[in-house]
Amino acid sequence: MALEVLKDRTVPKTTTVYPLRWRSRTYAIVGLVLILGMAVMATSAIGSTDIPLSTLCQVLLAKLPFVELKPTWASSVETIVLDIRLPRLLLAGLVGAALAVAGATYQGLFRNPLADPYLIGVAQGAALGAVIGFLLPASWQAASVPLLAFAGALLAVAVVYSIARVGKTLPMTTLILAGVALGAFLAAITSYLMIASGDKLHGIISWLLGTFSLTSWWQVTMVAPYVFVGTVVIWLHARPLNVMQLDEEQAQQLGINVERMKLILLGAATLITAAAVCFCGIIGFVGIIIPHAVRLIWGPDHRFLLPLSTFAGAIFLILADTAARTVLAPTEIPVGVITAFLGAPFFLYLLRQKKRAIF
Amino acid sequence: MGFVVLVNPPAAESTGIVCYETLETSVNRHIRRWPLILTTLVWLSCVGCIPQHPEGNVVDDLGRTVTINQTPQRIISLAPSNTEILFALGLGDRVVGVTEYCNYPEAATAKPKVGGFSTVDIEKVVSLEPDLVLATHIHGKTVIPALEEVGLTVFVLAPDSIDGVLNSITLAGTITGQHQQALQLVNNLRTRVEEVGNKTRNLAPDQRPTVLYLTWHNPLMTAGSGTLADDLIDKAGGQNIAYDISGDKAIDLETVVHRDPQVIIASVGMGTGEDLPWQYAKTEPRLENTQALVNRRVYMIDGDIVHRPGPRITDALDLMAQFIHPEIF
Known about the structure:
The structure holds two protein chains of two kinds.
Chain A: H1 2-10, H2 19-44, H3 53-63, H4 75-110, H5 122-135, H6 141-164, H7 172-195, H8 201-209, H9 217-236, H10 238-244, H11 248-253, H12 258-280, H13 286-298, H14 302-326, H15 335-357
Helix pairs in contact in A: 2-14, 4-9, 4-12, 4-13, 4-14, 5-6, 5-7, 5-8, 5-12, 6-7, 6-12, 9-12, 9-14, 10-14, 13-14, 13-15, 14-15
Chain B: H1 2-7, H2 9-15, H3 17-29, H4 34-47, E1 56-59, E2 65-68, E3 75-77, H5 80-88, E4 95-97, H6 122-127, E5 132-135, H7 143-149, E6 154-156, H8 162-176, H9 179-200, E7 210-217, E8 220-223, H10 228-235, E9 239-240, E10 248-250, H11 253-259, E11 263-268, H12 276-283, H13 291-294, E12 298-302, H14 303-307, H15 313-324
Parallel strand pairs in B: 3-4, 3-5, 5-6, 7-9, 7-11, 11-12
Antiparallel strand pairs in B: 1-2, 7-8, 8-10
């Protein structure tokens, strides 16, 4: 049933047929960008430490060029706002955006509502890489964990890709099966290494559940370029992705180079997912739920689905991480726990609402 | 016959388990002699210099009542802290199995391993034929029922404070028949705790430096209230900044910066040479302006002596006191 609906709507016949739809979706994008901006502002004011809004604004204003403000606040306030909260919520935003847009891409490519960014081995590859990083000599750990996680993610997908490739074509079912099988194999190695890891187990588990604790600016600057470039590449391929919803053969006949499209989209989605998980760990749920929620609200046209998912993912993860660091303050909850705990009921609610209205 | 054996316990011990089984059956047979046997037992325990028999029903740290009829001869320890207590009571020879993490004292590393901390190899435990298994609280739900299922005697030592450790050592002495050694050890340890306590007890709140105790750096992990480390900080005359966190949990970096600790003590694995939390605390730019870093008061301590509720807890207390109050210790 879902597929029929998809087919029904994926290719808008002409822009003039749904003028209202177009306008509302454009408004939606603008609206989400605004909400994102407000979320960044609002959440930077929330934390285990009470910082008055006026102080917060002053701290931020003082950082702008040409603004001279005499600091009336403790230096710790500045550290907390500028070096602890801001990088943390920016990274959360980047990762949320990356996972959501990658999830939407995978779901579109595989034409499968169960697809998520971790479907073909990214998570398991990253996890194995990270665990190996944790087990390396201590002095290398800071650099080796993200580096090996990134490399592991890309390597796992590359292996899955080369296994699934038949001649010049890439059957999507084979790709999924190969991904699931290799994922299970890598997860087995990871589990074994975890059992053998002794006192490092806590760090590993916390990484696997996903956490933004201790995010600093250099991590943001490392992740941002991948996410920006990857996301833009994906956005630019929204139209072919729409056509590919019909059927691969039909898309081919309509002039889409399907195999090339698969390679580009898989590559971009995998790259940004790998970049997203390498510092903060495997944050689940964002990549599968956000695209679905967006699709339920604004329809399946990828030209809107992709950017809307990007912004919605960023907003969602920023809010989830704020909950993670404040609900039980001064202690923290892994953000992965929050994404599932808050996201699942919300998604079920949406599903129920739409079921009544449309299906 | 039972009477003869009782009067001369060392002989009984040298002949091992088989002899005890005969002892028990003969005691059952001569049930009418119970008063006499008990009197002898009480008398023997007053004498003190001869290894006494344990008293039967003892309540362990999980509130379980454990019946111990004979002095245990083959003991398995399921926790590094238990191993340290057993060796400190002079029971090293009777320990027949330890965990992979039991690295102290040196002699413990040569004992057969029965698995990791929470991952106990039940089969291995059974094959070593222990007459006493010393477990800890983490074994409560899974390992202990499994061991009891196969008929083993399991006793739990799970203290979470310095006083609790002293109590556990006394208990361990009771069930293993090492009353005297336990008494001596506990007295020694108590004296050392008192020495520190006398100097810190009457400190005013503003004379107690705020302390961040760091067990891991990514995420930041600390020991909140109800932990041994928290008790140590308090007894050493400091204030734990994680006072509103209970147990071992992650702490928000923001909270640390805001509460501005005067002293940071990072736990490191001395054995493995891993001093990551200490390195982290010294180099984290966002902690640069905390009093601890400004005054260069970032210390490291062997995590084993802090987290293991064993006889080395007083070493940890002495070190903590020196870190927190270098002016009086």
